[in-house]
Amino acid sequence: MRTEILRYLEKNSRVDLGELAVLLGTDEMTVANEIAEMEKEKIICGYHTLIDWDKTGEESVTALIEVRVTPQRDLGFDRIAERIYKFPEVTAVYLISGAYDFLIILEGKTLKEASRFVSEKLSPIEPVLSTATHFILKKYKDHGTILATQKKAERVLVMP
């Protein structure tokens, strides 16, 4: 039952517990208790609202930063990751495979602000060897939700 609850909550965190209970063939209290237990165990780590910031008129930029580092003896990548994820502008840090070690997602108000973070805060960290910054220019789909407006197919009237 846990997996079914998690899959449903991942797509719709505002679900009515009664509705979810009906879908799972159980009662609302059972679902509520399962969710509370998963929150306590940190299986459910938080709830988020997906916002299309382009439609709000707010100035913002999202940067994906690839970072190559020298792992620290006996600590591997964990200490470096902790140092990076403590910056408030960093929204995510992932250890990845490939040419780089970390993928960092950064939120800022402007391209200049995001670039300044990389040059003034990230690059000076001693184990950091190199970075590559990519800016998100437009989001078409995020967290499984299509953000791009879809045009309806237009049919042309053909006269015989």
From TrEMBL:
Transmembrane segments: none
A GO BP entry: response to amino acid
An MF annotation (GO) of this entry: sequence-specific DNA binding
InterPro entries assigned to the protein according to its UniProt record, in alphabetical order: Dimeric_a/b-barrel, Tscrpt_reg_AsnC-like, Tscrpt_reg_AsnC/Lrp_C, WH-like_DNA-bd_sf, WH_DNA-bd_sf
A UniProt-annotated Pfam family: AsnC_trans_reg
Stretches assigned to the Transcription regulator AsnC/Lrp ligand binding domain: 65-138
SMART domains, per the entry: HTH_ASNC
A GO-annotated cellular component: cytosol
Protein name: Lrp/AsnC family transcriptional regulator
